[in-house]
Write a structure and sequence with these properties.
The complex is a heterodimer. Chain A is mainly alpha-helical. Chain A has one domain. Chain A is about 75% helix and about 0% strand. A two-stranded antiparallel sheet of chain A has the order 1-2. Chain B has helices at about 5-25, 30-50, 50-75, 90-115, 130-140, 140-165, 165-170. The chains are: A mainly alpha, B mainly alpha.
């Protein structure tokens, strides 16, 4: 084995981990009596995210390299990193004034957020089942902790515990599947797995149960339908900035790792996993949308809508093409802005120490807070896929990839589902503009500078991606390389 | 059936029985002791595969560390029998059991189909010495190894964040 320790491949992760440590050190400087240093922590974390992002953009011009067969720096990995960094950056902006109210240990919070982001970016770069597993555990463990951040709230603790128990269970499924695939192919590296399976001297009896168990493990993380039960409770109980971050981050990271395993390591088995994914995509879209219709809590509605969106992404993957992989990644990129933006509005609508907001809280804010209502309307239209916003192009590319791959009927079901979804997104918009402000309507709004910046950035990008999609799709084309070792 | 296969079947059966004991006994201490037996038999299986280092690690970390830790936890929170208070719906255990059987059956059928007989020279497949393990760990598996350090850091931070008492409460006491 030749040593190829290309440190540049894992440089973004190194930067994130390094800044996590800097945050911890700066946290020790401030004391509870003199907490001036602590207000700087979110901005330091944000600098870390920005530096990592710049490194990623700079790496776009370089040829893909491999780090010891375990990770790779192709455009797919870089694209995922950008999505995760966007989610982390917006998550930090949303947290800046929220987190100190529920937990004083802000230093640990931002350090964990950055470490979690490092685990997520590693998922997209990993080309070895072992690396994927450790990265998956890094992000999961960090999220279990972040969900339980609000120790005063029983709901937050419940979310953390529920997520931890079910997450540990699903990790076991993942490891079991990875072990069986190793047994079948004799390697955990993707390109070697593909080579061994193409060579025909592999044990197929081990392979198929292995793929199935791997699907269960990933399906839990991205909340596909038979494995989605935890999602609404965890999303509702977790502190809202954490929900916003995890709803995009976990999905993007797990989908990226999932796509790379399927397309690079198991392309020959596409006819069998394609059908399994298609069935799960239909169930996920339909049940997610139907359940979202009946929610009165905004966070629960967005939780079920995130399940439905996982289904749309899955539609792009089913064909197993490289085009589908790019489309799925672009979808997640648009989803990062519009979904975190929607959660930012939820934070604005929450009362102090409440952690959740009912839909009637938004009634009539169109007259009272026109800018806030406009932002929410943009996110809702984009999530339902109305042109010319970002969400429309996300859906367009995903469905186009499915049609090109010969799964046109699946794309049709996806479009029908978008129509169902439009109902509950538009209901919020209608109530904002056409209902009179009621007793429940938000009457006082705190002016949070960082949160407003985050909200504005998300709204601007949602519109900008919609108007100039070509500028952004360039970041997510021809991403996957077969490089693995 | 050679002697080594007979030995494997015997130890494997004990190991499996212990694993069933872990989940089926109502008393947490019994579960922990069954777990200890399970880890012990796994270590014996590793030795038969000439992976002595792995066997030693198995005994030290799992049997020595983890089970002791579990017993500590049981000691601290009490070892009363577990009465199934959480079960609201009577059908859930049956559905869970049925799904478990389906999973087990599916795996067993597909694995038995591909069963090609006993590996004759299983011992030769292993690099069981500490040197071989160390070399692999620091060359081929350097990335997961270093990532595991990040994982431990996350766990450490989590303990700090979730278990540390808020400062105000300490002062009140």
């Amino acid at each position: 084995m030749s040593a190829n320790l290309n440190v540049s491949v894992i440089l973004p992760e190194l930067i994130l981990v390094g800044f996590a440590m800097l945050v911890m050190i700066l946290d020790m400087v401030g004391t509870d009596e003199r907490p001036t240093g602590r207000t700087l922590l979110p901005w330091l974390a944000l600098v870390g995210v920005a530096v990592a992002g710049l490194v990623c953009i700079q790496q776009y011009s370089q040829p893909a390299a491999s780090f010891q067969g375990g990770a790779v720096s192709d455009h797919f990995a870089l694209g995922l990193r950008l999505i995760i960094l966007v989610a982390t950056g917006l998550g930090i902006l949303l947290s800046a004034s929220y987190i100190p109210r529920i937990n004083k240990q802000v230093g640990e919070y931002y350090a964990l957020l950055l470490l979690c982001a490092a685990g997520m970016t590693m998922m997209g770069a990993a080309t070895d089942l072992m690396v994927v597993f450790v990265a998956l555990e890094i992000l999961s463990l960090a999220l279990y902790i972040l969900c339980g951040l609000n120790r005063e709230s029983p709901r937050s603790s419940e979310a953390s515990m529920k997520y931890f128990l079910l997450g540990a269970f699903s990790s076991a499924f993942f490891v079991y599947g990875a072990a069986l695939i190793y047994g079948a192919a004799g390697s955990t590296q993707y390109d070697e797995i593909a080579k061994a399976l193409a060579g025909g001297n592999s044990n197929l009896a081990l392979l198929y149960p292995g793929i199935a168990l791997l699907l269960v493990g990933f399906g839990f993380k991205v909340s596909l339908v038979p494995f989605h039960m935890w999602t609404p409770d965890v999303y509702q109980g977790a502190p809202t900035p954490v929900t916003a971050f995890m709803s995009v981050g976990t999905k993007a990271a797990a989908f990226a790792a999932f796509i790379r395993v399927l397309v690079i390591a198991l392309p020959a088995q596409q006819p069998s996993w394609g059908w399994a994914l298609a069935i799960m995509a239909i169930l996920t879209m339909t049940l997610g949308n139907l359940a979202a219709l009946r929610q009165s809590s905004l966070k629960r509605m967005l939780a079920y809508s995130s399940i439905a969106h996982a289904g749309y992404v899955l539609v792009g993957i089913v064909a197993g093409t490289s085009e589908g992989a790019d489309a799925a990644l672009f979808y997640l990129f648009t989803y990062a802005f519009m979904n975190i933006g929607a959660f930012a509005v939820v934070i604005m609508l929450e009362k102090a120490n409440e952690g959740d907001a009912l839909q009637n809280r938004a009634a009539g804010i169109g007259q009272r807070w026109p800018w806030l209502a406009l932002a929410m309307a943009i996110f809702m239209f984009s999530l339902s896929g109305v042109p010319p916003l970002a969400g429309f192009f996300g859906k367009l590319f995903v469905f186009k990839a499915a049609v090109d791959g010969g799964w046109a009927w699946l794309a049709v079901i996806g479009m029908l589902n978008s129509a169902i979804g439009a109902y509950y997104y538009l209901r919020v918009t209608v109530s904002m503009y056409f209902e009179k402000p009621g007793a429940e309507t938000l009457s006082q709004r705190s002016t949070w500078s960082a949160l407003s910046i985050g909200l504005a950035v998300a709204a601007i990008f949602t519109v900008l991606i919609g108007i100039l999609p070509g500028m952004w799709t360039a970041l997510f084309t021809g991403g996957l390389t077969g490089l693995g070792g | 059936m050679t002697l080594s296969v007979l030995f494997f079947v015997l130890i494997g059966a004990i190991s499996l029985a212990a694993a069933v004991g872990v989940v089926s006994s109502n008393h947490p201490v019994h579960s922990a002791l069954f777990l200890l037996a399970h880890f012990g038999t796994l270590a014996i299986l590793y030795i038969t595969l000439e992976a002595q280092f792995l066997a030693a690690i198995q005994v030290i970390i799992y049997a020595g560390g983890i089970v002791i830790l579990i017993l500590f936890v049981i000691m601290l929170i009490g070892s009363e029998k577990i009465v199934n208070q959480a079960e609201h719906r009577t059908w859930t255990p049956y559905v869970g059991f049925a799904l478990g059987i389906v999973l087990l059956g599916g795996l067993a059928i597909s694995l038995l189909q591909g069963f090609t007989g006993v590996e004759p020279n299983a011992a030769l497949l292993q690099g069981g010495s500490p040197q071989a393990v160390g070399l692999e760990l620091f060359t081929r598996y350097i990335l997961p190894f270093e990532l595991a350090a990040v994982l431990l850091l996350v766990a450490l931070l989590g303990a700090l964040l979730l278990a540390r008492r808020p400062k105000l409460k300490i002062e009140e006491q």
